[in-house]
What we know:
The complex is a heterodimer.
Chain A: H1 2-12, H2 16-38, H3 41-58, H4 68-89, H5 115-125, H6 129-140, H7 145-152, H8 156-175
Helix pairs in contact in A: 1-2, 2-3, 2-4, 2-6, 3-4, 5-8, 6-8, 7-8
Chain B: H1 4-12, H2 23-39, H3 49-53, H4 57-73, H5 83-97, E1 101-113, E2 118-130, E3 134-139, E4 151-155, E5 160-165, E6 170-175, E7 180-182, E8 189-191, H6 197-205, E9 211-218, E10 221-230, E11 233-239, E12 246-253, E13 258-268, E14 286-290, H7 296-317, H8 337-344, E15 345-346, E16 349-354, E17 356-358, E18 371-375, E19 385-389, E20 394-397, H9 400-407
Parallel strand pairs in B: 6-14
Antiparallel strand pairs in B: 1-2, 1-13, 2-3, 3-4, 4-5, 5-6, 7-8, 9-10, 10-11, 11-12, 12-13, 15-16, 17-18, 18-19, 19-20
Helix pairs in contact in B: 5-6
Amino acid sequence: MLEDRILLRRLRAADSDALQLIYEKYADDLLAVAASLLSDIHAAEDCLSDVFVRLVGNAGSLKIRFNLKAYLMCCVANRARDYLRKQERKPDCQPDTFENPAKRDNPLARLIEDEQAAALLDALVQLPYQQREVFVLHVRGGLNFPRIAGLLDVSVNTVRSRYRYSVDKLRSLLNKGELL
Amino acid sequence: MKSSKDIERLAKNIRIKKNAVNKNRILAGAQAALNELKDTESAYSKRNIWRIIMQSRKIKLTAAAIIIFAIILGINFVVTPIDGANTAFAAAMDHVKQARTFSCIRIMEMAYEDGENEGKFLFKSKRMFKEPNLERHVKLTSPTSRFVGEITITDYGKRQCLVINPVEKTAVLSDISYEYNIDPGTGRLVQTQLYTRLRDKLLDLAAGAVEDIGMVTLSGRSVRMLRSTKDNRVTTVWIDPETKLPVQIEHTWPEQNHPPITYTEIKIDTELNDSLFSLKPPEDYTFTEGSSNYSDAQSRISTKMRHLLLNCFIYASERNGQYPKKLSELKAVGITDQILKNLLTSQDNPNGPVLMRYRPPREGSDPLREMILYQIFEKWPADGAIVGFADGHIEIILDKNHFEELIK
């Protein structure tokens, strides 16, 4: 937390090293969340690129109360949703893109270091986006339910329900062994 | 059979292979934006030093507390004493001295930044304590809506602090074992303890001469108003004629551009239930246990450094922004040679080597980035070096190259 404040302060002073350090510190987590939400490595990179541009642009006025990671996670979630909405509006887009943007034969899974985690990623694609979003932000992004509720503008109970449904469905999918 | 825990573990293991990620592509836009920022004059460099020190909420409050403390300790009344008023004033302050519980609402205008806006805001906070160890602060107003109603409860006996945020429904319990203050009279470290200085500061006023303004109406009740003046600061005390207790105290600086500070709804020795100071988080709140940002050694040296920085700041604020050339010049603000020695050396080894070095800020430098105090070390410390900047903030520098750039 202290280090984040320091990094942010340095970023405000246009310190390139601070940008690199923030990237090194959080890129793994942010990219994993973005990729899990978008099921597309290039879209995830674009998403992160936007988030870091925004971070630099807002650095002068930004004040992180709790932690920088949570702030960046929220930015990733917002950008991912924006991206999917734009995809949905494209005329050649399939109707279920927003709910299920990736193909079942998910090329992203090949970029995942852990085989079982890759299988989980495949399973995640089969969840409705709202459930996937809550699951990923909570477990991989480290955001607590109240923060996710604030981000999504829904009640904490709704977030809890979505999380419970997502875990049930993932368990069911993975236990079938279809994806392992 | 996969359990929920297995699934969560798997999700935590989702990692994209490094060689598949194009870091340059991700950071290209941000780097370009950063370069633009470099070409823009830093807004910070345009601010006066008071505003700069207000950047950090924590530093701001510490600075404000110490500076206000220094201002009030500097009382040297010149008004001829008026016996009756003086007695009433002293009696009122004596009640404050005897307080075992104390509560009031503090109202003061401060500069702030909340991430989107900056400006001045009338901060109201309810502050209460119960001796010997319990303290509770509630933010009644905040320019940032999510902090309204935030409660901070500190138990100095248990060395724990609970921050409850009713907007975000979070409760964070922190260990404050490594939090220190400086004893201003000796320069020695002491563990943070119950903050009773408000009461003690008011006590000092009792020694001064006062002017009896007479009976006035305050919030619909008839009270006696007393006033004391020193230099440009006017202190007004409203006293309940029946209990002889102060109900409101206000400091103003009519000749200076300094906002007034008011303590109102003062209650002394009223019953404050222990439940107000409970460290148990409310049910249905997300509870986390925080850890200290500093090691004990880092906390000790940073506390000393912060004290020196703030005294440098006070010195400069009284001399048109001119910092001392040497730390020994801080005698002018009450840092005697012995205090300075205690501040510069280890508490365990007061005759040992000094722990930090000072250099005055260079002419025209940006206070935000101008290092004026830094930790001395033989070998680069694994957990980073502590340095202090001219704007009053402290950083732990983890990168040796960055430290060497700062020291150039």
